[in-house]
Every structure is written in structure tokens, then in C-alpha cells.
Design a protein that fits this description.
It is a single chain. The chain has 502 residues and is α/β, with parallel strands linked by helices. The protein has 2 domains: 11-190, AMP nucleoside phosphorylase, N-terminal domain (amp nucleosidase, domain 1), CATH 3.30.1730.10; 196-493, Rossmann fold (3-Layer(aba) Sandwich). It is built from 15 helices and 15 strands. The two termini are 44 Å apart.
Amino acid sequence: MFKGPRIFKPRQFRDPKAAYDAVREIYESHVEYLRGHFRNFPESEADGRRFTARYPYVKIKVNEARRVDTRLSYGFVYRAGTYMTTLSRPDIFDHYLQEQFRLLLLNHEEPLEIGVSNTPIPIHFALGDDTHIEHDLSEHHIRMLPRMFDMPDLSHMDDEIANNTYVPAAGQPEPLSLFSAPRTDLSLMRLRHYCGTSAVHFQNYIIFTNYQFYIDEFVRICHDIMSPAGDSNLKKERAEYCAFVEPGNVITVNRNLPGLPEKDHPGVKLARMPQMPAYHLKRKDGNGITMINIGVGPSNAKTITDHAAVLRPHAWLMLGHCAGLRNSQKLGDYVLAHGYLRNDHVLDQDLPLEVPIPALSEIQLALEDAVANVTGLNGYDLKKVMRTGTVATVDDRNWELRPVIKNNVRLSQSRAIALDMESATIAANGYRFRVPYGTLLCVSDKPLHGQPKLPGMADAFYRERVNQHLQIGLLTMTLLRGFGHDRLHSRKLRSFNEVAFQ
């Protein structure tokens, strides 16, 4: 008689580590069940069997809504009731899940129930991001696949919870997290596709940029940190970062750390670079720095942040170039965004334009302190190289070709001091997904004042400012890490009917 996946009865836990171990046991058992039958798929199709495995869930029933520390913006449910979410990839979310479980148990003193959900695991997600089904199977077996295994179902993958539009059916539990397990898995696979590295390498502090020059400098710095010789100023960094990962999962291990069991890994040679290549300066606790070249435009900015958000990072920043809109600005000056004029349009259906995107004080202070530290300027003198104000984000790179008067009215009314194509999108998606965000741009042109971006001017700008700008971004992440993630996840980002998970 054919046997299904191992049976797990729902169990209750008051210890976060034990609850996490139960989640991992269920997940690994069900995924291995699917993988085993997929390995035999070509031989077993004649049996007419269907193979279904399901995600684990965590559930809590709360009789009283309360929290031990009112300063914390997550870790509690907002009213009495039953709450549940499906879970995936406990290997990636080990620290995260244990922390969310710990806070729920601390705040509500009710046990966590761990069991097997009714949500099937699609075969694509069970096989992982290094398996290429279309490459490994014949056309006949590809047609047979949906008859024998569950396929990705978009009805399990929308963003209604994050958008505050989700209403559970009568008798159904309230959500515990922003993302279901299938939504998480889809994004983890998309990150591999767009960025060229496995999601397991992504770190909790993410820098987005729109120029390869920044990536080239980041790669140089990271290889210096991994090398036993080189710049003595990197001594501290050499002690805290354990590896550097490049597209293709090429891993360079830090030679300065004694007793590291890992070795360099050549990864997979890519025939071409991915659309938005990612590079990871890793720490053992996951609190290193990931840097991604997202290219140009708000569509790319939305795409990458839609998927990076499932990793629940502690902060993401935009470091890029912008058009300076004030005549008093000089090429190479910095712009610290404290507000955004959203003319990007890609998030209009998910986040109404009338919703303000607030500046987050911890991020703003860290960025300002980093600029002061790197430039050597403080207080009033800092205004010589940095201006704080509204950044306008547009979806048309050739915005300068529109009639001048039509352009200037909206920009003038908003008091915008700079214009780019990504920053408001990244900030708005940070707000939407409850990820702390910030923007520090560098003025590369002033088209309203006779200085459009031209080859010679741009080359000089790149040579003079890229290294300093990147150093500011890296120092900002170090400062934010020092704040502690519990302080970074601001209450400004949480609604009054918020999910419990960070």
C-alpha cells in the first residue's frame, strides 16, 4: 500500500527552540518526501499516484491582548483571538523564527501549536533554487508534472496582509505574519533568479545602488577584508566578517579568522550576469551587508524589494545618483531624503499616494553621522556638502525633455531638492513591508541649471565621489547594527491591527 508523508499530530510548546525544532522536522520530512518521489518521477508516472506534502504552521490562541514591553513594535497580537501562519525554509529563518516565538510566549504566556497545515508545498519550491525542472525533464514529463505534484498557486501568494486589505473568512484564524509560506518561497526563488545568489546568503542590512561603479568598489573592499594582507585600517572588519559571496555563489572565506571550517567555493560560472547582481559580506549572525545593483528605474526597485522583504531585513538603504534641483548644490553634494514625491506610479495600486512615507529617526541620524565622520565636517559645516529635503522619484529617465514650466511647477510646490528614479519606490516598499529604510543620494547633474549629465562631467564625478559615498553607506550600516534591530523596527511602520511577526 502506498504511504503518504510522515504523520505529525499538532503539538504545543512553551519553549521557542523546541517549537522551531518541530517546524524544521515537519518541513524537512515533507520536502524530502516530495524530493524522493520526484527522483523516481519518470519511472512512477504509470502508477497514477499523486504526491502531496504540506507546509508546517504555527498557531496561538490568545485570551488577552497584552505585551511586556510597549516600546517594541512587534512580538504581540493586538486583540484576543486565534492567529496562525504557514512557515517555510527554517534553515534560512532559524534565528528569526526563534525570536518571534520567544516574544509571543513572553507576551501572551500561551503555548504555541505546531502542526501540518492544509497548504500544499509546490514541487518547484521543494526542489530548491538549483534545480531546473524544464532542463531536466522531457516535454512529456513536464506535461505530466501537474497530475502528480502540486504546482505554484498564485491564490496563496498575494500581498493582501502587507497591504492591510486581508479579511479572513468566518471562523478562520487571523494572520501571524505578513507573508505565507508559498509567498516566501516564491520570493526566495526570485531572488536567486534576479540576483544570481542563493537566498541563504542574504544579510540583514541591504544597500541598493543603481550603478556598477559602487559594486566594483564594494567588491574590492570585500576582497581586501577577506585577504590576510592589505589595508591595516580594515583590521576590525577582518575580525567580524566571515565570507564574501558573489553571483554564481562564488564564496571567498575570510583568511583572518582562525578555525574556520569553510573553504572557498568556486560556485557556478555564469554565462551572463543576472539582472540585479547581489554581493554579500557575511557575518556568522547574518548581520552583514548585502549590496545589490538594481539598475535603473522604479520597476526594478519594486521588483527587488518585493522579494527581499520576505527575508525581514533590519534596514535597507538607497545609495545612488540624482539630479540636483537647486542652483546652490554642487556636483558631488549629498542629499539626505526626509520626504518623497512619488511620481513613480508602480506602487499606486498597493499604497495610496495620500499615505505619507515618514522619515525614520534612527536611519536619518545614522546617515548624517556617517556623512560627518567620513567627510570630517560637523554641525553647520556639514551643510556645505549635504542637504536634507524631499526627493522626487519619476518613471521617465528623460523627464528633462518635458516643457520646463510643466516640470518645475510640481517640483517647486513639493520643495524637492533632488530627483531620481528609485528612492521613493524603495522607501514606499520599505514602509509597506515594515522594513526600515533610508536614502542618501549624490548629485551627479543639474539639468535645470545648465549642467545635464554629459560623459566628461560624469567621469569626473564618478572618480571623486563613488568611494566616499560607499564608505558612508557601509559606516551607516555599522552604526545601525550598533543600535540593535529592536530599535530599528520603528512603531511608525506598524498599523493598529498589525501582525505579530516582525
